[in-house]
Write a structure and sequence with these properties.
globular, 15 strands, alpha/beta, five-stranded parallel β-sheet, five-stranded antiparallel β-sheet
């Protein structure tokens, strides 16, 4: 018997001969063919790999092409008699779409019902035959071939695209190496590619396992055994193996080369040189580095991003693998909308590494998803559920990484341990900063770790950065701690980022540099440094310095809640340390005060914080922080409705800026004045200040000034200019201005500025012009930004907006939301909007028929407006009160309502607030119609309506036009 006959895995597959008619039809549309006889999907004659279940779904779809196929029908056909979860169908539909590539739109989802396969499908007459696919497609074979490629125990998830690429590569290159970290699935991918190549190869495909070899000298012997070679009397060597193969056509899979890399490389190079029809497919954690080699990096499975909707999680291969493996161990495991985010988090934290995901799935099958997600910080002790028959290094997650770690020389082990201190990507300078002074050739060490799949290169060519996958980083840090090196590395890391942040502060102040993704890395590394510094084993002095240096970072990213917590922690430690740099307390307290105002509102302690900042700034003659302190005091007084005091502070701010020659801060003084004047009811002068602030050039870095005053120089004035324009009877200009303001805020990219543009501008004005859809859209944006950045005061405003929008649909529900918002104001307190909220509540209560409660709310608002000089909304409060009095009825209702309307008109005319005047005039026209007649009421209303030159499609003007027509009739 020949060696081929002796091999128990010799196969002689039989495929239909080319041109042989199939008993089942071939459907054709465009360049696609669905061959039901061969069970093949072809693109322009080339077979495209597709799973058997996915093909059955596609077959069912094409038989009803263009028609709706329900989920139930598909499940009954593909899984007859079985109980199957919906997500199983979704996974295969997703696989079909990925296979269709740019034509994925042919598979159309009909929400809640099923699917349609689009395209002009017809049955082929058999004249066009599929071209043989030299890479992966099946072709007729008449000769038997030999293989020992292991059979697949389960479907390979998420590697279809990689297999297609590898099929092409193996026709162009004679040596292809699959490189990647441990557990990434190199062996499984190589075996599947080899299996798919069998039908097209016309030769042997043989698997050489090197994993068990302890001696590199045994590599040729392993090849002889696996390949079933007869060497006669030759000494076993790479050359003798090559002579035995000779001119036969063979695909040799060299699996797990990393621990015998030199010997494996020598064998591969010899085979390629001496055997013209031999192709090598190798798997290794580093490249063979031989002539003609193509290195294919096996990437992790794709995972859903943190921001991605849960509904899209099933589109990601890591999630698909997790679900498939969990179901294989626990048949009743089901996936729903609540569990998908947790699965996505598990897969993301495991970096999409298939082996780690399989361990996690095994644990989820017995302990549940929440337990797995909660225990990932202890992943090496927890994820130990490997298969009993797996290699020892694949039975636990730690063993997988131990294998790679033990293969490293000591210098690279040291480097890997130290790099474990970085929770995110790092630069070469950062890497050097955490090494000992006598460590040399760090660049070579990093390059070697990249080549061994332990480090990943990220970033552009101009700014190279590297990162450890989270699992590898956790392993490296565990080794760092056990080696006793952690405290020194942590101190060096914290000190490096303290220096880096200080240098960046100077850059931010003068330039508009876009740091892109590097800011996320800076945040992660800064957090790690601060957490260590304030730990029991840390260094509080370094922690205080790092906190002070990080203030600009938190403010730039609108992480105001975190900024306040970090500043307060550092302030609490001030008394325990000595020899701090002058101005540290001033800087920390300024950050605390600003963040406090925007996260909790003007609580009582804010005033004393800003007073202390001003005192410290005067002591060290720091004009910049004097201005910040004055701004903080102004903001506090404005928010608690002490408008006259706030106006004085805006003038004091201007005086200091002019005296110190700080011209760049004068637009801020204009903004402060315009806002206060708006609330005092002086719209004309307020507009002048607003226009001057908007028109002033931005000096230095716009973002830097924005972060330190909590809002953008132009966005704030634009908001209150838009409000003033509406009040003065220019609704179209107002909406145009506010839309531009929202866009400007988005361009600046500052969350608090965006919230101001949405809350004080877009939401409010959309309600005023009766654009309900616009108001809902802006309210949703406001809620999203407020939640993302922990800006509690804006979350309260969004709640109030949603309440006001419910007024006509569900007045009781709207009143409940508004009451909740007012309650939050009282606990914050954020009083500057209390008047507006109370007016909305009064209106909504009136719509609900609760007139007495509505009058109580509006009277409370009027009383507050009287005591604070908040005059801008006074005409509207009086109008609402008059309307509620009429609705409540009573003998004196008409007279009392008339008095309210008369006072409302008087205030509106004093303020030149034409829009308020129109609203009140409409109420008067209705009230006095019986008394003075329809004609005079119409003349009264027309005299106001005719002064408008725009906005004729807004709610008030449409209502006025309708009332004029009614009075004319």
């Amino acid at each position: 018997m020949t060696p081929r006959d002796q091999n128990p895995r010799t196969r002689s597959p039989v495929a239909p001969a080319a041109g042989e008619p199939s008993e089942r039809p071939v459907y054709v549309s465009g360049g696609w063919e669905i061959d039901c006889g061969r069970r093949e999907l072809r693109s322009r004659g080339i077979a495209v790999p597709i799973g058997s279940r996915a093909f059955e779904i596609l077959e069912a779809m094409v038989e009803s092409a263009g028609e709706l196929v329900t989920k139930g029908d598909l499940m009954a056909k593909v899984w007859p008699g079985a109980v199957v979860e919906d997500n199983a169908l979704q996974v295969h539909i997703s696989a079909i779409r990925k296979t269709l590539g740019t034509d994925r739109g042919m598979m159309k989802t009909v929400s809640g019902r099923g699917y349609r396969l689009l395209g002009n499908w017809s049955i082929s007459d058999g004249s066009a035959q599929a071209a043989p696919d030299a890479a992966l497609g099946p072709r007729p074979l008449h000769l038997s071939f030999r293989t020992n490629i292991p059979l697949a125990a389960s479907a390979l998830v998420g590697r279809e695209e990689a297999m297609l690429q590898l099929g092409d590569l193996l026709t162009a290159y004679r040596v292809v190496t699959l490189r990647g970290p441990g557990g990434i699935g190199k062996t499984a991918l190589a075996a599947e590619v080899a299996r798919r190549l069998l039908a097209a190869l016309e030769g042997d495909a043989l698997f050489v396992e090197l994993v068990t070899l302890a001696d590199p000298g045994l590599v040729p012997s392993a090849a002889v055994n696996a390949l079933g070679l007869q060497l006669g009397g030759d000494v076993i060597s790479a050359d003798s193996v090559a002579r035995a193969i000779g001119g036969r056509k063979v695909l040799v899979v060299l699996d797990n080369c990393e621990h015998v890399i030199d010997a494996a490389a020598s064998l591969a190079e010899t085979l390629v040189r001496l055997c013209p029809r031999t192709t090598i497919l190798a798997t290794s954690r580093e490249a063979l580095r031989i002539d003609g080699e193509y290195v294919f990096y096996v990437a992790p499975l794709d995972v859903p991003s943190q921001q991605e909707a849960a509904a899209n999680a099933l589109e990601h291969s890591a999630v698909q693998l997790f679900i498939a493996r969990t179901k294989s161990l626990r048949a009743d495991f089901s996936v729903d909308a609540e569990s998908l985010p947790t699965i996505g988090t598990i897969c993301r934290r495991l970096d999409g590494i298939p082996l780690a995901i399989e361990f996690a799935a095994a644990r989820a099958a017995t302990l549940g998803l929440k337990q797995v997600a909660a225990r990932l910080d202890d992943r090496f002790a927890f994820l130990t559920g490997g298969r009993r028959t797996a290699l020892p290094r694949h039975q636990t997650l730690r063993a997988t990484l131990d294998w790679s770690y033990e293969l490293l020389p000591e210098s690279e082990r040291f480097l890997l341990r130290r790099l474990g201190i970085f929770p995110a990507a790092f630069t070469l300078d950062a890497a050097k900063s955490v090494m000992d002074e006598n460590v040399a050739n760090i660049e070579d060490g990093i390059s070697s770790l990249v080549s061994k799949s332990l480090l990943t290169l990220v970033g552009s060519a101009s700014e190279r950065r590297w990162r450890l996958l989270e699992t590898i980083r956790a392993y490296a840090q565990e080794k760092l701690v056990s080696s006793g090196e952690f405290p020194a590395a942590a101190r060096r890391q914290a000190r490096y980022f303290q220096r880096r942040l200080r240098s960046m502060q100077a850059e931010w102040k003068e330039t508009q540099t876009d740091y892109g993704a590097s800011l996320d890395e800076l945040v992660a590394n800064t957090r790690a440094g601060l957490d260590w510094a304030f730990s029991s084993a840390g260094d509080e002095t370094l922690g205080i310095d790092l906190t002070a240096a990080s203030i600009s970072l938190w403010l730039r990213l609108s992480l105001l809640g975190e900024c306040r917590e970090r500043a307060e922690r550092a302030l609490a430690a001030l008394d325990r340390v000595a020899d701090l740099e002058p101005g540290i307390e001033m800087l920390l307290r300024a950050a605390q005060g600003l963040c406090l105002m925007y996260t909790r509102g003007p609580v009582g302690e804010a005033e004393s914080i800003w007073a202390r900042v001003f005192e410290l700034a005067e002591q060290i003659s720091d004009a910049e922080y004097q201005l910040r302190a004055l701004y903080g005091l102004w903001l506090y007084k404005f928010l608690i409705c002490e408008f006259r005091v706030a106006l004085e502070l805006s003038q004091q701010f201007r005086d200091v800026a002019e005296y110190r020659g700080i011209v760049a801060e004068l637009p801020t003084a204009d903004r402060m004045a315009c806002i206060v004047l708006h609330f005092l009811g002086d719209q004309a002068e307020g507009c002048a200040f607003a226009e001057r602030a908007i028109g002033a050039p931005v000096l230095g870095n716009r973002n830097f000034r924005t972060t330190h005053y909590g809002t953008d120089q132009r966005v704030g004035p634009s908001v209150f200019l838009a409000r003033a324009l509406w009040l003065q009877g220019h609704p179209d200009q107002a909406m145009k201005t506010i839309v531009a303001s929202v866009e400007e805020a988005a361009k600046v990219g500052h969350a608090n500025s965006t919230c101001i543009a949405l809350a004080d501008g877009a939401c409010f004005l959309s309600i005023l012009v009766d654009d309900v859809a616009g108001a809902r859209r802006y309210a949703a944006m406001l809620t999203d930004d407020a939640e993302r950045h922990a800006l509690g005061v804006w979350r309260t405003y969004a709640l109030a907006v949603r309440g006001r929008l419910l007024m006509r649909e569900d007045a009781a529900g709207g009143a409940a939301l508004l009451t909740s918002a007012l309650t939050e104001l009282q606990s914050t307190p954020y009083d500057v909007r209390f008047t507006l909220y109370s007016a909305w509540l009064a209106e909504t209560l009136g719509e609900a028929g609760r007139y007495t409660a509505g009058l109580s709310a509006v009277d409370s608002a009027l009383q507050r407006a009287e005591s604070t000089d908040e005059r801008w909304f006074f005409p509207e409060l009086l109008r609402i009160r008059g309307k509620l009095l009429l609705a409540e009825g009573g003998s004196r209702a008409v007279g009392s309502a008339g008095d309210c309307f008369a006072r409302s008109l008087d205030w509106a005319q004093k303020q030149k607030a034409l829009s308020w005047e129109l609203r009140t005039t409409m109420e008067l026209a209705r009230l006095r119609r019986a008394e003075i007649g329809a004609a005079r009421s119409r003349d009264l209303l027309r005299s106001v309506y005719s002064r408008f030159t725009e906005g004729f499609q807004t709610g008030d003007l449409l209502a006025a036009r309708g009332l004029l027509a009614e009075l004319a009739a």
